[in-house]
Backbone:
């Protein structure tokens, strides 16, 4: 399938790269953003990705752009731990890439039969299969409710437990069949969609990585540096929106459940050129259906010190470490 860098004109506008500047592409993937950024101005790009399968594409980029591009294999949540100096811009395209979805052996999609894996790094840690085999009904319900916003999460969890008692769940097709039997076919959306999304987010700790990545970008960006984030899920966008508003000094939060109040804390570490979210154009959605849920937000770094990291911004769900301890 053709690779489409989502909301590319809007991303380039938000980054506003100039000659001699350095941009971190925190989600390199197939290099769509990196290539376009390098063509937009005589600047440099440092690509980051935790997926080792991007190496061949990165080698092509290096051959074409020379010392203006390099790849570091690392999660973007650790961008300030890999020896980089302060940079002028950071872009994050959150979520699974079309390249990963289209590879059956990665186990991301119920549309292509493969092992029930879903790990972006592939180097260790629990898989989606481990989650469905070893999490309790309550834990699976919480994962499906929070990360997938699945209304029948309890029913789905119970059906998975019944299925694993009578036989193994090995492939994406095994799980998709269970979900279709549990939920039935209604409308155009496949019944497995929300559960597969929830498992992918859980297995890769995507929300935790997102929040840590935002904090890392805050520490790495120069004053005047631009942070551009594209999300595809309401939970992701909520984290980015709340992070930006707090860092801009608009609100502060006490806990997951306490209401936000006007900020009286540290000086704002970001300004917001635009408070509202930017969505893809109608022509883009018509050309690339995967862009339809995309949302873009931009923030500009001030000279103020970074805020302290506060993980209370994240939803309360069982951690990967707790699952790994059972394996």
Residues:
């Amino acid at each position: 399938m053709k690779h489409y860098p989502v909301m590319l004109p809007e991303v380039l506008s938000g980054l506003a790269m100039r000659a001699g500047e350095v941009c971190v592409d925190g989600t390199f993937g197939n290099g769509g953003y990196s290539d376009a950024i390098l063509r937009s101005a005589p600047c440099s790009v440092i690509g980051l990705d935790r997926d080792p399968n991007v190496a061949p594409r990165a080698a092509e980029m290096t051959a074409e752009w020379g010392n203006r591009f390099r790849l570091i294999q690392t999660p973007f949540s650790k961008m300030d731990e890999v020896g980089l100096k302060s940079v002028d811009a950071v872009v994050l395209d959150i979520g699974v890439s079309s390249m990963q979805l289209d590879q059956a052996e990665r186990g991301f999609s119920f549309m292509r039969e493969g092992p029930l894996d879903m790990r972006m790094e592939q180097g260790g840690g629990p898989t989606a299969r481990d989650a469905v085999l070893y999490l309790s009904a309550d834990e699976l319900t919480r994962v499906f409710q929070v990360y997938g916003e699945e209304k029948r999460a309890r029913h789905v969890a119970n059906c998975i437990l019944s299925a694993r008692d009578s036989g193994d769940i090995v492939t994406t097709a095994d799980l998709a069949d269970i979900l279709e039997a549990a939920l039935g076919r209604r409308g155009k959306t496949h019944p497995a969609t929300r559960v597969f999304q929830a498992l992918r987010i859980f297995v890769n700790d995507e929300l935790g990585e997102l929040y840590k990545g935002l904090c890392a970008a805050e520490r790495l960006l120069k004053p005047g540096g631009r942070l551009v984030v594209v999300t595809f899920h309401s939970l992701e966008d909520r984290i980015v929106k709340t992070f930006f508003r707090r860092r801009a000094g608009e609100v502060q939060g006490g806990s997951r459940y306490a209401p936000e109040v006007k900020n009286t804390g540290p000086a704002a570490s970001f300004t917001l050129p635009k408070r509202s979210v930017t969505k893809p154009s109608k022509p883009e959605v018509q050309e690339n259906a995967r862009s339809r849920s995309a949302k873009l937000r931009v923030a500009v770094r001030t000279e103020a010190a970074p805020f302290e990291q506060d993980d209370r911004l994240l939803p309360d769900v069982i951690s990967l470490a707790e699952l790994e301890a059972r394996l």
Residues 98-107, 254-258 have pLDDT under 50 and may be disordered. The CA atoms of residues 244 and 299 lie 7 Å apart.
